[in-house]
TrEMBL record:
GO molecular function: 5'-3' DNA helicase activity; ATP binding; hydrolase activity, acting on acid anhydrides, in phosphorus-containing anhydrides; nucleic acid binding
Keywords: ATP-binding, Helicase, Hydrolase, Nucleotide-binding
Protein name (Swiss-Prot/TrEMBL): ATP-dependent helicase DinG
Span of domain Helicase ATP-binding: 21-292
Species name: Nonomuraea wenchangensis
Lineage: Bacteria, Bacillati, Actinomycetota, Actinomycetes, Streptosporangiales
């Protein structure tokens, strides 16, 4: 759907058209119609207090298109605009590149030069008090780690201690290379554990509080989806008061919010609570919780991973025991504000209350997930996540939908602009709007501002219709032959996107001896370094899985072929997506289309979006799974993809790739 918007002029500020023109000229760009349409749409949504979803293809310049009206609104209302992203990479792009250039360009046209700041969750900042005081340790049981890992953690701890003496922000992302969660936890606290600036001896110089203070004084606050959800759903505000939110990478919003509200119960969470409560209460009371945790450990070790649809009696009794013994510990701790004049004791008590509350409340959620009259009435799903060599099994609980939370807590209080290159699944915004809770008429508008790329002339979508459907026993030999021939035609230059790490590794192992070009596989090194190597050496190929579907931006001749091994449906045994599918069906909907097909369409669109990253890029998207053109749902999936020229003829993509490879070789031969 395309909607024509006109800019709404303001009496004392330049129009968004004028500001956009100044900004584009300052960054050396050229006007793009999609960008103009988007900037006007965002301005009108803000003026009308109406939610807006904008699909803006790669190359549109959507960051400028939402930042310009956001800055203008902040100037006009004297309230900040919050911009939320899903990835650290986009946060850094906004704060390090886009916003500084924009502020400098617009400063002379506005009452003052626009200001901005980044704000993250408290866990991302070093806690000065915890770094210097006797705080209860967060270390997990030492026997879970071998001596080399313990030694590596020790070295990381030393690095953090040295960095703590010189950092000005305390932001974990400044630590390069990064450190493990195990090491970082010894220097950070959650919002629930924090003593508060007024009670903490280091409150006056707290990095998290200083970041919040800066955020309260600027025009644009850049944050992440998780913190946005915590702010919207928590009792106390985390972000400064605001009325407008821009959600970039909005296709990730539901998954990130779900992660925030997912609870976990395991021997580790229970034993941590026991250690935290330590000597603060009678040992016999703490022992009761410890024994309940050991009962849980034994149960989970013997149970198969997967959904727990019906609550076994013994598990129900164990969860009740954990709930009750955790509450006894909470009661034994006494008033929550006791020892407020003794920071050390207050810190220990706050940490104990936090761990106990998490154990108690999660057990309550799990028990409440059962006992409904029908599947349609169920609100949450419980599943057992099988353990690994490093972590024991854990019970998890998550809501079957977060649409109600988002509708009431996020969209009910603010004007929200949601944008991404992939929002219109099956050609409409309805699927994602329903997941966001925006199903009511008149609440929102959706527009597709297109892309400056000429998809039919620049890219071919080739579906290998002649291949067999993918099975569960790994990649068929025909698939390996097809991949080999395509890569040989392209002279390398291939990004292989696989539905699982097992498939990516199997293809890498099978093809390294068959190909004359370098072949990298995710896991060989850090993903960032692998992508860098792939981008810098044209013949190199890179195979991998999920993070590569959405995280690779390689313009130019190093990427001419994107191979997708199969339609990326969620695993049939995935507990959360399968439960959501069943829940939709129980309410009369099509569970497969609402959950599995939407998931696949989003990932396919994201994966296909890796090919064209600049106006001059050309190449082929090769999908080996014939279901993309033969299955009953194929139309929905195809309508979710950019409008590439389509074919099922194997000769056409091979010929096109050979031509592109020959063109790339010409300058070197000249």
């Amino acid at each position: 759907m395309r909607v024509a918007f006109t800019a709404v002029p303001d009496s004392h500020l330049p129009s968004v058209d004028e500001l956009l023109s100044i900004a584009v000229n300052a960054v050396g760009g050229s006007e793009r119609q999609g960008q103009v349409t988007m900037v006007r749409a965002v301005q009108q949504a803000i003026d009308a207090d109406e939610h807006l979803a904008v699909q803006a293809g790669t190359g549109t310049g959507k960051s400028l298109a939402y930042l310009v009206p956001s800055i203008r609104h902040a100037m006009d209302s004297d309230k900040p605009v919050v911009v939320s992203t899903a990835t650290i990479a986009l946060q850094r792009q906004l704060v390090d590149r886009d916003l500084p250039r924009l502020a400098e360009a617009l400063g002379k046209e506005l009452p003052h030069e626009p200001t901005f700041a980044i704000l993250k969750g408290r866990r991302n900042y070093l806690c000065r008090y915890k770094a210097t005081a006797g705080w209860p340790e967060d270390d997990e049981q030492d026997q879970l780690f071998d001596p080399r890992e313990v030694s590596a953690t020790g070295r990381m701890v030393q690095r953090i201690q040295e960095w703590a003496e010189e950092t000005e922000t305390g932001d974990r992302d400044e630590l390069v290379p990064g450190v493990s969660e195990q090491a970082w936890r010894q220097f950070s606290v959650s919002a629930q554990e924090c003593l508060g600036a007024n009670r903490c001896p280091s409150g006056a110089e707290c990095f998290a509080e200083l970041a919040r203070q800066r955020a309260g004084e600027v025009d644009v606050v850049v944050t992440n989806h998780a913190l946005l959800a915590i702010d919207a759903m928590g009792e106390l505000p985390v972000l400064p008061e605001h009325k407008v939110v821009v959600v970039d990478e909005a296709h990730e919003l539901v998954d990130r919010v779900t992660s925030v509200v997912t609870g976990e119960l395991s021997e580790l969470t229970v034993s941590l609570a026991v250690r935290r409560v330590g000597r603060l209460i009678e040992q016999s009371v703490a022992d009761q919780l410890q024994e309940a945790g050991e009962d849980l450990k034994a149960l989970l070790a013997a149970a198969p991973p997967g959904r727990v649809d019906e609550l076994p009696q013994v598990l129900g009794l164990t969860l009740q025991l954990i709930r009750d013994t955790a509450w006894r510990c909470v009661t034994a701790l006494g008033p929550r504000n006791a020892d407020k004049d003794d920071p050390d004791k207050a810190g220990q008590r706050k940490a104990a209350f936090t761990a106990l509350d998490e154990v108690h409340d999660t057990a309550v959620r799990m028990l409440d997930a059962y006992g409904h009259d029908s599947e349609a009435d169920r609100a949450e799903v419980v599943w057992l996540d099988g353990g690994t060599d490093r972590r024991p099994p854990a019970l998890r609980v998550a809501p079957l939908t977060v649409s109600g939370m988002l509708r009431d807590k996020l969209f009910g209080e603010r004007t929200v602009v949601l944008t991404s290159a992939t929002l219109a699944l099956g050609g409409t915004f309805d699927a994602l709007a329903a997941q966001w809770g925006l199903s009511g008429p008149g609440e929102w508008q959706g527009i597709d501002v297109g892309s400056p790329f000429d998809h039919p002339r620049s890219g071919i979508l080739y579906v290998a219709k002649h291949l067999p459907q993918p099975g569960r026993d790994g990649l068929p030999q025909q698939y390996l032959d097809e991949i080999t021939e395509l890569i040989e035609a392209a002279g390398g230059r291939t990004l292989g996107l696989f539905s699982s790490m097992r498939a990516a590794k199997a293809a890498t192992e099978a093809l390294r001896d068959r190909l004359d070009v370098p072949l990298l596989c995710q896991g060989d090194d850090s993903t960032m370094l692998l992508v860098k190597q792939f981008a810098e050496d044209e013949p190199t190929c890179l195979f991998g899985t999920l993070s590569l579907w959405q995280g690779v931006d390689v313009p130019g001749p190093s990427l001419r072929l994107v191979i997708i091994d199969r339609v990326p449906f969620p695993r049939p045994d995935d507990p959360l997506t399968s439960a959501r599918q069943r829940h939709v069906a129980a309410r009369g909907g099509n569970g497969f289309m609402a959950v599995a097909a939407n998931h696949a369409a989003l990932l396919l669109a994201q994966g296909a979006g890796r090919l064209l990253r600049s106006q001059h890029d050309k190449g082929v998207i090769a999908v080996l799974d014939p279901r993309l053109v033969t299955a009953r749902y194929s139309g929905f999936l195809l309508n979710s993809l950019p409008p590439f020229w389509r074919t099922t003829d194997p000769a056409i993509p091979r010929a096109a790739l050979k031509r592109l490879a020959a063109e790339a070789a010409e300058p070197a031969d000249a």
